[in-house]
Amino acid sequence: MSGRRDFLSMPAPENYVAGLGRGATGFTTRSDLGPAREGPSEEQMKEMLAKRAAQLGHTAPSAYGAVEKKEEDEEEDRFQDPDNEVGLFSSGMNYDQDDDEADRIYQDVDEKMDKRRRARREAREKKEREEYERNNPKIQQQFADLKRALGSVSEEEWAALPEVGDMTGKAKRAREARQNSMRSYAVPDSVLSAAAQQGQLETSISTDSSDGTMTNFASIGAAQKSALQVRLDSAAKSTPGSQTAVSGTSTSVDPRGYITALEKNSMNGETPVEDVNRARVLLESAVKTNVHNGPGYVALARLERIAGKMATAKKVIQKGCEMCPRSVVVWEEAISLNRDNMHNAKIIAAAGIKQNPKAIKLWIAAIDLEQTVAARKKVTRQALDHNPQSVELWKILINDTEEIENVRMLFAKATDTVKLSEELWISYARVSEPQHAQQILNAARKAIPTSWAIWVQACRLQEQLGKTELCDKIMERAVKALIKENAMPKREEWITQAEICEEEGAVKTASSIIKATVGWGLDQDDDRRDVWLQDSKDSVARGRFETARAILEHAVSVFPVSTTVWHALADLAKRHGTPETVLPTLERAVTACPKSESLWLLYAREMWNAGRPADARTVLGRSFNELPGNENLYVRAVEFEVDAGEFDQARRFLAIARESAATDRIFMKSAVLERQLGELDTALDLVNRGLNTWPSSWKLHAMKGQIYEQQGKLKEAQEAFSVGTRAAPKAPILYILLSRIQEKSGIVVKARSTLDRGRQQNPKNPDLLCEAVRLERRAGNTNMAQKLMAVALQECPHSGLLWSEKIMHLEGRTQRKPRALEAIKKVENDAQLFVVVARIFWSERRLEKAHTWFTKAIVLDPDYGDGWVWYWKFLEMHGTEEKKLEVLSRCAAAEPRHGEVWQGVSKDPRFARKSVEEVLREAARRAE
Predict the structure, then answer these.
(1) Does 872 reside within a domain?
(2) In a 3-state reduction of DSSP, which class is residue 92?
(3) Residue 879 CB contacts under 8 Å (≥ 6 apart), including other chains
(4) Where is the segment annotated Disordered (predicted)?
(5) CATH code for the domain in which residue 905 is found
(6) What pLDDT score does 27 carry?
(7) Is the residue at 844 inside a domain?
(8) Percent of the chain with pLDDT over 70
(9) pLDDT at residue 666 above 90?
(10) What sections of 29-154 are H helices per DSSP?
(11) Do the domain assignments include residue 894?
(12) Three-state SS across 166-217?
């Protein structure tokens, strides 16, 4: 046995502290009677660590706060407070006027720079905030799809939902019920006594229940009565007109609001008797508690009227008049309740006015009681004697006067008495002669120098007189005067006023207002052009086209070389004007911006549409002088000549273009024209010439293959498309055309390989993925098509083309609607999906829903031709002639260019020069 002593009986090492290795330094618990022992001091720690290091043969560590010794020559003053200036800056220099001016200049510069960067900074912050909200959606947004799905839950499913209380703790309650059923209790004496007296009858209730075994019903009834009395007393002590909260319950009653609710229910015959009785108790208590509470009497009287007790209501309101003679609402209610007896109502009105001679509402009520105009005037004049400053009373008196001279005299008296009423001054000017109206408005401006409405009325007066040249000057003076008085309204308020003037027919006034005020509050460094463009869009959305035109005219005067503003003005004139306004606008535009290709093209097109082909050719000639060798101008000239049937002239233009502005597009247009005219060999020769210069032009390769296909040479067409895929590997359409040729030749395996090669060169391309799915579907491989569609949606989850293909061709009828809802959640605002949803509703014979979704599709993307095609096909079966004509006109105005079905017809050489209506009808016939 070892001679080593027991560990627990060994003495502790020197300087040992229990728990020191774990960081413990002593602590105090609730059971301690005194403070715990403190840990070792810093000197003890250093000594112990040094001793331990010596035993191990190491150097002493610098732990536990031990730091290396500072250099003796180190200056401690280097860590001084920088705000405590000493030395060079301790001289206490004075802060003079130059310093103040310098600080102000620096502050102005900082504010100017901040204002210049504000728009970009706010745009950047808005973009960052939107990005953050998109990456970190709120819980409400995360559950939006689930909430939307609740709309499809039927009433039967709602009714079948169990209550939360029925499901919570069900197992626990069942277990407790089983345990309780297994328990046994001793039967008390009270139960035995009740069983012995079971056959006896007792007609009285005993009030003494000293033993505690019998229920004291008398005391319960007394307690309920006391509780009800406490509630009523609390309601009576509440502040009149405020909500009455009853202690211990969830009842809160606003007397006036409660009576209003009762009135609404009484109109529908739904007022319950319990509510009336309950409200009566509360209001009677409130009136008794505060006998001078006027609204309380009014509420109680209205309650009695709702209950059908008119006599009681009149008594209540009569008492209210006696107790609250200064309450105007009480007298008004009294007059209203006694309208069945006009004599009594007049007496009550006279009494109320005697008590409240300054109450305008009582005077108006008294005026309404009179039956003749003379009597109304008499009462009104008496009211004006007591209230000469009341605009309402003056208006009533003037409205009751028929003679125009008397009306003018009354207006003169009214404006002299109430000098600060804009309404009276403006109305006075309107009923006066023009010359006198000018004097009236001048006097009004002196009386109310801060009124902008008077300046607007003066401008409208000049417009009515035909002096439109003075409108701009008047508004310029108005702006200066209002700025001087610090009463200049905001720019948005001026735009609203201009729209009101336009609505009332004062178009020139509206234009003058815009011209003088639309730039108010905007600095030259701000994005004024974008602001004015947005203002014009807002006015157009509200149907105020003249105001929008005035805004754009002002923008054009400030930015005369901005093609964006000119395009906006021309578009407004085109959509909401006439050719007489569009063409002069475009003439001004090309004169101001002669180097703008888009303006020249638009001008020539509108000239052609106006039925002036010679002038359109003249415009194009002018454009050639300004923009020599421009490709788009030559193309537009060719289009005009083709539309006019001048094919030889079109060929000459194209020949000139191939010499002076040779591009692959010019060669393509030349080949297209020859192909449309049936000259396939010439078209093929032009395509080959173009490919010699631009071998990577995928459009030329595509046209070459299509020409061979049109000639019936499938092998040559396949070779042309194959060469095109090697020359332009990033053109998905070439792979699609090549696969279709191979499929037509019966080589499905090779077509599948071609599409796979195209997907490798163009990853995540929805067109190639959709064509691969369609290839398998046409071959009858539905399972493979399903697998490819799943892969395609993983690569392109936001493709409306893929979702449309899946919903219409790879889903059963019962699953189409759920898949469509899922697709719309994934792809927001896609016209192709909207058309799919409309077709689903159409197949279910829900025609209104289908019509709504078709309308959404063409409004969202009017350039999507397939939306118009399916809508027209729908209208051919279920639409009216008026609706068909409307859709045809809208489609012609939109001029759609995209869509599989639409492009299949519009690019067919046989429909090259067909109208939009003919293309639409043919496309609807082909759609399936």
Answers:
(1) yes
(2) coil
(3) 887
(4) 19-138
(5) 1.25.40
(6) 53
(7) yes
(8) 80
(9) no
(10) 42-56, 97-135, 139-142, 144-149
(11) yes
(12) HHCCHHHHHHHHHHHHCCCCCCCHHHHHHHHCCCCCCCCCCCCCCCCCCCCH
pLDDT in tens, 95-123: 677 787 888 888 888 888 877 778 788 88
Is 682 buried (19+), middle (13-18) or exposed (0-12) by CB count in 10 A?
A: middle
The answer to whether residue 887 is domain-embedded is yes
* SS3 state at 253: strand
pLDDT tens digits for range 370-405: 888 888 888 888 888 888 888 888 888 888 888 888
Cα gap 514→198, rounded to integer Å: 96
Tell me, letter by letter, the H, E, C secondary structure of 451-514: CHHHHHHHHHHHHHCCCCHHHHHHHHHHHHHHHHCCCCCCHHHHHHHHHHHHHCCCHHHHHHHH
16 vs 245, residue with greater confidence: 16
Residues pairing with 252 in the sheet: 245
* Residue 127: pLDDT over 80: yes
- How many CB atoms within 10 Å of residue 122? 10
* Contact in structure between 495 and 518 (CB atoms under 8 Å): yes
**Vertex 658: Cα angle to 655 and 661 (nearest 5):** 130
How far apart CA 428 and CA 666 sit, in angstroms, is: 70
Structure tokens at 141: 């947004």
The whole domain housing 54 covers 7-63
* Token pair belonging to 511: 């234009």
Total structural domains within the chain: 2
Distance, in Å, from the CA atom of 273 to the CA atom of 308, rounded to the nearest integer, reads 12
47, 63, 79: which is the final residue of a domain? 63
Q: Which amino acid is at 881?
A: E
Report d(CA 259, CA 295) in Å as an integer.
Answer: 11
Q: Could you read off the pLDDT of 189-215 as tens digits, one per residue?
A: 665 566 555 554 444 434 444 444 444
Half-sphere exposure of 155 (CA within 13 A, CB side): 0
636, 657 contact by CB (below 8 A): no
Tokens encoding 747: 């080589």
Cα 309 to Cα 276, 301, 305, 314, 321: the distances in Å are 12, 9, 5, 9, 19
| pLDDT at residue 158 greater than cutoff 80 | no
161 to 148, 156, 172, 522, 727: CA distances (angstroms): 18, 9, 21, 59, 64
What does pTM read for this prediction? 0.57
| The domain boundary residue, chosen from 23, 39, 63 | 63
